[in-house]
């Protein structure tokens, strides 16, 4: 193809979720021409990769997409799936982005004369800048040992889970206890299903403490404005598993020990498959203890904040375990237990194979500073802890988008000054 006839844009945004549309919003305000390319439909993941009873785990007041703050009647509530979709549809209408939906980006390569060639399923485009807004959750992780499970077992990933009714009758094994795993285990438990849960190393936190939502306390303490460079773990925090908690039914703790008292069976991390036997690590007690240490540690930080500020609040408390594992069970027999389905909740891996740019580390994760890479013209937006805790969420993605757009604008102005000199 003759590149001279390829449509050219100052910016091409890959991904039409909240990150991509937030970037489009700020580009439009700066009068910068651009194109958003979305493989499916804008915001599709919220509709196609969330279960029926999904709801936010952060209060609605934290939803603050650019030009579109939450304006509903329950700022301290937690939007359910349908409400989230409506919120996002309204945002798209406000942004009115120049978007091509149903178009896959196949390859982004640098051009000898500068900028990039963007090869897609709908033809080629060129751009001075490429903003990768496709997130970091691309390929659902299912371990290879799953191939050795009996074929009668129904296996799905958390991204495919919708409700208890889609699974075969019988007990369900949920593997992983991060946000999705813990909430899906609860969803199945509340639906009356017998649940076995393989517990991972995810931390947990309280929903409410000393009279307020813990998120509200942490916001007052400045936690959500802390840049990654100031976090004790530095960039290592990007690899952390999210704390499990829920906004369901107005918000509450998720206490796996309480589930155990109610009949859910807890095991340690799943290690291997041996025919119809599942083998587990003997680490359930330590995993529960560590999650509780995090829970109490966050509350203790809130206690210190209240004391330092001289605030009035209900008295402090410390969580005491309501259940202890009687033993470390290391084997589970599928035939004996009758487990009919497994839900894998162990996350996703990134896939940026289509981007030809030397901006990745050995694990395939982009290296950047607040979304700006060392390769001129390549940017990332919407990744967890891109800059702060809220970078991958509705609360702060707009600020990151504004920062990136300001950098693109300054670069374009500098180029124009150089051409005029």
Derived structural class: alpha/beta
Question: Using only CA atoms, what is the Rg?
Answer: 23 Å
Proportion of strand residues: 15-25%
CATH architecture assignment of the largest domain: 3-Layer(bba) Sandwich
Number of strands: 21
Quote the distance from N terminus to C terminus: 33 Å
Largest sheet: 7 strands, mixed
Note the run of SSEs as H and E: EHEHEEHEEEEEEEHEEEHHEEEHEHEEEH
Shape: globular
Question: Uncertain segments of ≥5 residues (pLDDT<50)?
Answer: none
Kindly describe this structure:
This is Putative flavoprotein involved in K+ transport. One of its GO terms (molecular function) is monooxygenase activity. Keywords: Oxidoreductase. It holds the Pfam family Pyr_redox_3. With 421 residues, the chain is α/β, with parallel strands linked by helices. It folds into two domains: 3-138 and 350-420, 3-Layer(bba) Sandwich (FAD/NAD(P)-binding domain); 141-344, FAD/NAD(P)-binding domain, CATH 3.50.50.60. The protein is built from nine helices and 21 strands. It has helices spanning 18-29, 44-48, 81-95, 179-190, 214-220, 256-261, 284-309, 334-337, 397-420, and strands at 7-14, 34-38, 64-65, 68-69, 99-101, 105-110, 116-120, 123-132, 139-140, 154-157, 172-175, 195-198, 208-209, 212-213, 265-267, 270-274, 277-280, 331-333, 341-344, 348-349, 378-380. The strands form six sheets. Strands 1, 2, 5, 6, 7, 8 and 21 form a seven-stranded mixed sheet that branches. The protein has a five-stranded parallel sheet with strand order 10-19-11-12-15.
